[in-house]
Structures
1.
Amino acid sequence: MNIFLTGASGFLGTALLRDLLLKGHSVTALVRPRHGTTVRHYLGCRLSEYDPELPLNKYLDKTLHVANGDVSHKNFGLNAKEYLHYANSADILIHNAATTVLDTDWKVYEQINIGGTREAIKFASHTRQKSIVQTSSAYVAGDRTDTVYEDQLDLAVGFRNNYERSKAISESDVRNAGATEGIRFMILRPSIIIGDTQSGRMSEDHHLFNFILRLFWARQMIYKRLNASRTQHDDRFRILGNVDVTKNFIPVDYVAHLISILIETKGAWGKSFHLTHPHPIRLGTLGTYIQRAMDWPGFTLCPMETTKDLSPLERRFFRTIKIYEQYFWDEPTFDQSQLKAVLGKRLTNPSPISQEAVNRLVRFVLEKFQSRKNIR
């Protein structure tokens, strides 16, 4: 197929773009302009970082073309001639661009997530197959804690933050376009996307990357104090959370693989899919894995009742991760009936979130932490 892809230089976008190229699709990647470099060079660097073995020269200007634009602008920031050329030559649009920041101003979500999706719907109406694949989020379920089905969407539920709300509104817009404008659509709802299965590689603006990085800073502060005091102290550091709640993490390469299969599956159109882990990890188990991976015996999770007993450093850390803490207490179950029915035997289970997997993620963050520390 000829595919127009937004968000191509993002965390998921880079992995997906690689898979699409390897499967023989022709892709035009929309990349937002960056100061000091061309969009072509920037995208090439992102692809090479994700897969150093990918032969970029084999694809550039052949089956990979790069468009300079921004989904938050009218017509993606393209001039009229470019816009119609890209739209009319594409079979489908995969709309993957969005801001994933959890705590910014609502106007940003309106402009990028909601406005960008409405521009994507308009673009899709000009494609050969009038088709849009929308990357949504499993967390459009908001604060529900029961079983959520793939075709359910309720804008009246409570949302933990405006990111969730904006993704729910965007998904609703795509569904409405399918019902009223004849746009063929597919909704993809990944859960919390984590690093690559083999390398643990994550984007440095990823939430889990940021969380683990903050833990390394806290650990460094604690051990510096212990070494300076020359007395026996424990290295205790507590994070508030429900050890029994599950967290649904899914590797980025697995999500990209599923998307590349679904877009080639006729029965997938007009449906929504939870791209989630069928066996989510318990938060308590994840905490133990992080403790071992960081070689930090004093790192533990504890209940909310412990708040009054937290140290100044623990309190400070708790305040800095407040936007993430809201996910530490409960989570729904994400049903995958439609995904299983559509893909059948082609649906393979993702790798488990094991100690080895967490080791890879932590090791990747540690390398970045050490480089940042050396710079400072």
2.
Amino acid sequence: MTSQGSKPTARTSSQVRAVAPSPSARTQTLLKGKDGIGTVRRTVLPGGLRVVTETLPSVRSATFGIWAHVGSRDETPTLNGATHYLEHLLFKGTEKRSALDISSAIDAVGGEMNAFTAKEYTCYYARVLDTDLPLAIDVVCDMLTGSLILQDDVDAERGVILEEIAMTEDDPSDCVHDLFAHTMLGDTPLGRPVLGTVDTVNGLTADRIRRFYKRHYDPRHLVVAAAGNIDHQKVVRQVRAAFDKAGALTQTDAEPLGPRSGRKAVRTAGRVDLLDRATEQAHVILGMPGLHRTDDRRWAMGVLNTALGGGMSSRLFQEVREKRGLAYSVYSYTSGFADCGLFGVYAGCRPNQVHDVLGICRDELDRVAQHGLSDDEIGRAIGQLSGSTVLGLEDTGALMNRIGKSELCWGEQMSVDEMLGHISAVTPDDVRAVARDLLGHRPSLSVIGPLKDKQAARLHDAVA
């Protein structure tokens, strides 16, 4: 079980819109693959439950997942960590299965089962042989519809989650991303850690988590996704039977929730957050507002990010590591949410070299903002991004993630060829325009490390 926070709600800044009602099951083909391979189909069941599948007959595996339209941004301050806590608790047992029954059922067929929580969604999945898909569907659906959420389980799992928080705190290269989210977004749902804090986790009770579960895990909030050597109609029948048995599809006029919408400006500039830790390295993120995930410029931003810090040939890697040997790990990344986004440059280096590293990173960002990238850099980045996009979709788990997240976050499906078309259509002028618009902003800075007073005082120079 994992969390996905800022790395790769109170709904005050993000609203949820409803899509068309579905009084009866309705199936449509969203993407048509040759000879059925890569065909994506979608069925909306009477309770508002969506089922999307992608068929890949050439493999012998299948991945089945259920995505919930809830993440840490849906939590109030006192509920911070509830989404991730609930993710753990759904593995603890139902009326039909104990925690051991759940894990042993998938282990017995050589499958794997896990879940992850992010800022705007949660996903539970199992990957099995194609012949064992009915078992995976039964187990995962049982977890999502019939979890008991007992106080004894809440108390037992609390210690596990506190250890997970401690583990994250012990890894400054991970923890600095949470610090950066807080630096940029403050004490808001998106700025708080997905795991919660020691205080908020200690304050959560079974009753509070159970109410959170009932509010966010009805079929309208869920998307079922499956990919591999599967038959769409069989998956729909098995899912419908499982949810019907749990009495979860009784609201026949229910409407599935559409993607989040809204726009939120991130205006943070020149802010510096330093967390003093006795670490061997200093971990820094220099960043600024990015793009929300539906922004048409996101393809150009992806190319820009790849050219700046997406590989061994990127500018930042070459300048910081290859030419000067100042850091082992240096990269850039983007985080896109429904209504805003972040762009950051991470580096881990010796504390006495922090200012050298930050100076180089800031100089490169300013240089690219003013003068753009060369055509060669852009062409290389387009090729790298295209290749990594395809190679990242070479297993059924990745395919399930793609179609499930696309349905939940965009409300549509895009073929690999369409994605590659968007990437290849990016022009040097597109990249230079987005670089000028985004990288020209005054950055903010998050640092974890053992910096002395004089070093700490100089950190503001990097964002001046």
3.
Amino acid sequence: MVKSPLNERKNANTDSSGLRLNIEISRKALLVLLVVLIVPYFVAAGFYLARHDWHNLLGSRTVAGGSDGGTPCNAGPWGKMEFIPIKIETPEEFLSIQAFESTDSRWFFGGMNRETAIALMDRAGITAAEHSQLANSKWDTAGSGIYVTAPTETIVSLRPNVRAAIYKSLGQWPENSSQQDVFFFPSDDMKTFFDKSGVSDETIGLVKQLCFPHGKLQFFADLPLVMRKLQTYDDKRRLAKAVSRRSTLLLKLAIDDKSNVDELLKYWAHAGTEKDLRPLFESLTKVPGGTRISLINLLPPAPSARLYTFAFPSMEPLEHDNCHWTSFNFFKDPPDNAFTNAAVVRKTLETDYYPVFTDARYGDLVFVSKANGEIIHSSVFIADNIVYTKNGGHYLSPWMLMRIPEMVDAFSAMYPPEEQLKVTYYRNKYY
């Protein structure tokens, strides 16, 4: 039985024998007694709260319902969502500084001699000084073409449009691995792309000077050159991690006692996931002041386990070798490795999906195609123009979230700037 404060106060001056005790004490003495008895409890409570998350212990409505510093998504059937831009760097286990440093720094011109190679660079727009420096450089004839060891100062001095023209030509031949496997950054993100990377301002300035435009992107092909200028291994490691960054998003759904659970489930619950999402959503509506939940908690098992991660390298590439594996296995548990087969993907798309021309919804497939209709990439629509995607058939590409326009820009890196890529949507017939 729980005693009320009234009953406690009523019986405070009565002993077990029923005798009433009259105790007289002065106000000053009473104050001293209260301080002696109560202050130790406040001190103990202070130590306890200092060692724990006192916001959570006290159940602060401001903390539970307040923003996490994210940007609100547009309104839609997905509910109240917000995103926080982040950047993911390639794991150090996947980066070889020695491999970058040992890359052949010479330029190879296939099927050319010294004169025709210099003529090509003249047409690209090199200056008279750069022409002289290149003409007097070391040239090595190969069976199928010719190499030139371009001076570092000449490479650095090239204007962006000239560098773009020369490197476009160099990228035609596999001998020029740096110009074939370029790093790229969104042009409108260059001011902040290297923030908090640990790379010095001087090195960042050199990287930006060596960049050249490609549509809405900035290409960077001279990592070995910059590496050779750095003195310490840590400086080189930080640079390699910085240029390998991928821009992605943290996505959260806000739920409070005013949230319509049925409407949220209508959007988020597919392929048997309602059995788990309904209890979760209903419990979150009871959190005082509301709360925010990460998208990872809403996703099916396969994407939830992989989001923001990199695949392990394998001698037998499976999921990390195929974006379609990622997309077509979104709701499958366990994943089906048959989706590494292009014929299986094509047949499944034809039999289980249909094109949609209305607003996309959660789980729709989002394809990036060339103008002739050739599909070059697939991803999965999440909410508000954001997709779950794995860009590129390589273990260096993580599973992540991107806005659709930025994903399209990333794939435009593989094609001439004038190549127009398009986006199409397909929906599963059964969920």
4.
Amino acid sequence: MASQVSERGQITIDRELREKLGVRPGMVAYQRLVAGRLEVVFLPGPHRRSLYGSLHREGEEPKVITGDDLEEAVMEAIAEEQALIGASNT
């Protein structure tokens, strides 16, 4: 399957692949470069509940300061976990 890149850098994901991956509107497409290739991990869209401080331990400095930092750290951890799962299934 191939698709042409638009002037804005967009591509269309084939319907069959979207269905197999369970990709739905509103999901977040987390992108990163891995060994010179684009890896995209689809994550559920953001929720409206705050989890700020839920992992804080007494006497420990917070590891993330902003919501964006937290979101990036979570996406990176999920992407790494998905890569490990994918590697173990092959």
